[in-house]
Specification:
Strand order of the largest sheet of chain B: 2-1-5-3-4
Low-confidence stretches of chain A: none
Strand content of chain B: 5-15%
Largest sheet of chain A: 7 strands, mixed
CATH class of the largest domain in chain B: Alpha Beta
Shape of chain B: globular
Radius of gyration of chain A: 27 Å
Distance between the termini of chain A: 66 Å
Mean pLDDT of chain B: 96
Structural class of chain B: alpha+beta
CATH class of the largest domain in chain A: Alpha Beta
CATH architecture of the largest domain in chain A: 2-Layer Sandwich
Structural class of chain A: alpha+beta
Largest sheet of chain B: 5 strands, mixed
CATH superfamily of the largest domain in chain B: Beta-grasp domain
Strand content of chain A: 25-35%
Radius of gyration of chain B: 15 Å
Number of helices of chain B: 5
Oligomer: heterodimer
Helix content of chain B: 25-40%
Shape of chain A: globular
Number of domains of chain A: 3
Chain lengths: ~750, ~160
């Protein structure tokens, strides 16, 4: 199997035959069931809680409250902002927060028990809007914070934006807004835990088993080695399974009761009690000279983290860093603030704030093109970042800058669509563009991955990785990379994945980082394994300086003339000496931290680039928007598994269409998939994925990442297309029937 | 009273099945057939799709007793001992499986479609699968898989 060909996904057959047991499917005869009691209002003070009636329900074994947590009841992915109470401690910070946990012999008994718990809540003044939260005198969401409701403020300052704007030939100024979005992974959160020999073993769906282990240990007040986390097969994540969800409840109950327990969220619970995409309000001023070269961009961004920090710090910083888009902008002034409110919390979702700012930076490019009378694609091409140019944070990119290639690949499709637009009856068509860049991995911090490879005496080769597979395809890609390096077929390599007892930390499956970062760690492990084998071969041959090469299961003397050994001879020799043939690998991308005042620095080692265009048709009688086609050009560095890259692109486009047209989480009124609609097959546009391979010199065989980039340009492209169809800019998502009709009727009112 | 029905070709007899129990709960909890998934519990997502006398239904909205005297096919009953069913094979080969949580329901919906219409065009496929949500694939490779499955079933390709 050649690297870059289309490989069949590891585990696809088990999924197609129903054998795969996801986190949601965990559970055995005799397990206890866990159900949370959730606050029916918030913010509120817990005046009293009486769970004696619950204990009287047949089958209920125990009711846990915050006082039963042996360790720290404040968890969260980012070490400096752990603030999420898994069982409310006196105060309910948001509607739906868990106040108690019921364990029972059956799901029915647990539900009955949860209904029987009497919780008396006293309303507290709350704040639900980030601007209001930052105003003087606003109720504090966390009274103990010196910064009040401000979670974070990030600035990116490069050059002198005000002066450059004053000198610009054209200026465009506009406001953009995007609401909250639910991940809606098809699998709801679920898992199982049990107690064994003084340890708790948790098997649940997750995007980051090693983080889970650390936070569960904090929660239980024990050393991490008392907690084992095994990633259950995970039915989609998109960022929604980065925060822990059922895991603390499972660990707590198993720890106290010493019995196996299981828990699964209902879809309503997934909507109510997991993170959402951060909403953003964005005010932009962009300037250009007469030729259309960007002179400056100034952006004011405001977002809402909800009641807890979750990934807020990361989203705030990443949104700021990417706010000016994949363009050469000589003068930049970005300010991004994120506030606490009493809304249910927001967190990581595919793109970490970049899809939100992309709506604005692409809207600005369209507005500039209109002001200059330029073609929107030409304007983007003129300003596209190229190698040896500096980003908004002053990082000069040396390789892997493929935006111009992406735009050139789109050009024939874009031009054909522009020329073929049809408007008939109530229908109006439009074409829009979206561009993006996306820094691979975490922003301006170390985020290493580790892996091991082992050659067993019986000839099997094992890859040990902590990388969580969620459906994105990391199992397949990491195995392909290891095989390529060792000269084996992928099928010859066994995987041991996502078990904190048997694998080491690879960091989160997030930030499109696993192909690039963990891929490099796997290659490093493969190189070290090769070195172990070659050293063994030299010892076996008694020739310390022999120049040898590993080719699959053979070891050859370089130059082709000399001796040939089978690896199994070397493996037998090493085994006879009691030496393990197992080697570790590690990779941490090169970065510098951002300057706290100016945001200047090299936050990422590699960037993915992409450009998409969308063809839409708007029914001006109903407001219905149909996305007919999307062409998506993605610079992925190198496609390791071509089919999987195309799968990511098509999936990202569809999620982007949902975000553009229909998805907005409204607390209290969107509580399941019947009132929060995600795209169905009938909504699917025809997608043309175009893979651009501009090699990243630090990437594994040149690869970068594609998971989040796939989604980011879509909503701006759709918004641009609808804007063109309606002849007025649409800057607020989603473009649902009401919003589109409002735009149509307002435009008609304004006509003379 | 015993609930008797045919499940994946074999007769099942169960006692003490409450009237309100869904077919989904019966399959997953009573019989341990976790290939049938739950994704919403309100009939919106299709993850719980099974075939009832060959027609696709949401098992979360189907009372277990509705299966009495009828034939239920779940994903576990589709493949032979050795070989995948052509629809399963097409899904695997076409890259239609990403996280795989929607896959069992999607495959059964696709089989039901192809049983009725051996050569559906793209629009027919899209509409037939509109009751089965997928969040990973964008449906692109699922649609390709259904077309490929059609060809396999019609013997046009091997």
């Amino acid at each position: 199997m050649m690297l870059g060909a289309s490989a069949i996904r590891v585990g696809a057959q088990d999924r197609a035959t129903g054998k795969t047991r996801f986190g949601f499917d965990q559970g055995r005869e005799g397990d206890l069931f866990l159900v949370c009691v959730r606050a029916a209002k918030g913010p509120a003070r817990i005046k009293s809680m009486d769970y004696a009636p619950a204990l009287a329900v047949p089958g209920v074994v125990r009711v846990f409250t915050a006082g039963d947590i042996p360790g720290q009841n404040r968890l969260g992915i980012i070490p400096v902002s752990k603030d999420q109470e898994f069982l409310a401690q006196g105060l309910v910070r948001h509607y739906g927060q868990a106040v108690a946990l019921v364990a029972a012999e059956s799901r029915e008994a647990a539900l009955a028990g949860a209904r029987a718990v009497r919780v008396e809540l006293e309303d507290l003044p709350g704040v639900f809007d980030p601007a209001e939260a930052l105003a003087a005198g606003a109720p504090l969401v966390h009274a103990d914070r010196a910064e009040g409701n401000l979670l974070k403020e990030n600035r990116i300052i490069k050059g002198d934006a005000e002066a450059a704007l004053a000198r610009s030939a054209v200026l465009v100024e506009a406001e953009y807004a995007i609401g909250r979005v639910e991940h809606a992974a098809l699998e709801m959160e679920g898992g199982r835990a049990y107690y064994q020999d003084g340890r708790v073993i948790v098997k649940a769906c997750t995007q980051n088993p090693h983080y889970d282990q650390g936070d569960l240990a904090l929660f239980l007040g024990v050393e991490p080695d008392r907690v084992r986390v095994v990633q259950a097969e995970t039915g989609g994540g998109f960022g929604g399974k980065l925060d822990v969800s059922v895991q603390p409840y499972l660990a707590l109950a198993a720890w106290h009761l010493k019995r196996p327990v299981r828990m699964a969220y209902t879809r309503e619970e997934t909507f109510l009690a997991t993170a959402k995409r951060h909403p953003f309000r964005m005010r932009y001023v962009s300037g250009a000279d007469e030729e259309g070269r960007l002179t400056a961009v100034k952006a004011e961004l405001l977002s809402d983290t909800g009641a807890f920090a979750s990934y807020g710090l990361a989203v705030c910083m990443r949104a700021a860093v990417h706010a000016t888009g994949p363009y050469l902008v000589p003068n930049v002034a970005v300010n991004c603030r994120m506030a606490y409110t009493n809304n249910t919390w927001n967190g990581a979702m595919r793109g970490f704030g970049v899809p939100q700012v992309a709506l604005a930076h692409e809207g600005q490019m369209d507005a500039l093109a209109a002001a200059l009378g330029m073609d929107p694609l030409e304007l983007r091409l003129k300003n596209a970042l190229r190698a040896d140019q500096a980003t908004a944070t002053g990082q000069v990119l040396k390789s892997g800058v493929g935006l111009t290639q992406c735009l050139e690949r789109l050009r024939p499709i874009y031009e054909a669509w522009r020329h073929g637009l049809s408007h008939g009856g109530w229908h109006r068509q439009g074409v829009g563009l979206g561009c993006m860049y996306y820094g691979i991995g975490n922003t301006g911090v170390s985020n290493p991955s580790t892996a091991q490879m082992e050659w067993l005496p019986d000839g099997r080769v094992v890859l040990y990785t902590g990388v969580a597979e969620l459906g994105q395809g990391s199992d397949t890609v990491l195995r392909q990379l290891a095989a390529q390096r060792l000269g084996l077929e992928p099928e010859e390599i066994d995987l041991c994945r996502g078990d904190t007892d048997r694998t080491t930390n690879a960091g989160a499956s997030s930030a499109s980082r696993q192909t690039y970062i963990s891929g490099n760690a796997v290659l490093n492990a493969a190189d070290n394994l090769e070195e172990l084998l070659l050293t063994g071969a030299r010892e076996l041959l008694g020739a310390r300086h022999l120049d040898l090469d590993l080719r699959g299961r053979l070891i050859l003397e370089k130059g082709g003339q000399g001796r040939t050994l089978e690896v199994k001879e070397v493996a037998r020799f090493l085994a006879s000496e009691g030496r393990e043939i197992k080697a570790g690998g590690r990779f941490d991308p090169n970065f510098t931290a951002l300057d706290p005042a100016t945001g200047q620095g090299r936050p990422y080692a590699a960037y993915a680039f992409a450009a998409q265009c969308a063809l839409v048709e708007v029914d001006t009688a109903s407001g219905l928007v149909k996305v007919k086609e999307v062409a998506a050009a993605h610079d992925v560095g190198r496609a390791i598994n071509r089919r999987a890259v195309m799968g990511q692109i098509c999936g990202g486009v569809m999620m982007g269409v949902g975000m553009a047209l229909m998805e907005e989480y409204q607390q209290g009124s969107t509580d399941n998939l019947q009132n929060y609609h995600i795209p169905t097959a009938a909504d699917a546009p025809r997608v043309t994925p175009l893979i651009v391979e501009e090699p990243e010199e630090t990437g594994p065989y040149g690869a970068k990442g594609v998971g989040e980039p796939a989604l980011i340009p879509t909503a701006p492209a759709v918004a641009g297309a609808v804007s063109q169809a309606l002849g007025r800019p649409m800057r607020r998502l989603p473009l649902n029937l009401e919003r589109v009709m409002e735009a149509i009727t307002t435009a008609e009112d304004q006509q003379p | 009273m015993e609930l008797i029905f045919k499940l994946n070709g074999e007769e099942v007899r169960l006692s003490q099945v409450p009237g309100e129990e869904s077919l989904l709960t019966l399959l997953r909890e009573r019989l341990g057939l976790t290939g049938t998934k739950e994704g919403c519990g309100v009939g919106e997502c299709g993850a719980c799709s099974v075939l009832l006398d060959g027609k696709v239904v949401n098992s979360c909205l189907t009372a277990a007793w509705q299966a009495a005297g009828r034939e239920v096919t779940t994903i576990e009953g589709l493949a032979g001992d050795e070989d995948l069913h052509p629809v399963q094979r097409a899904f695997v080969e076409a890259g239609a499986v990403q996280c795989g949580f929607c896959t069992p329901g999607m495959i059964l919906a696709a089989k039901s479609l192809l049983d009725q219409n051996p050569d559906p065009d793209e629009e027919v496929i899209k509409n037939a699968l509109a009751g089965n949500l997928c969040r990973c694939t964008g449906y692109h490779d699922i649609i390709r898989a259904v077309r490929r499955a059609g060809k396999l079933l019609r013997g046009e390709t091997s």
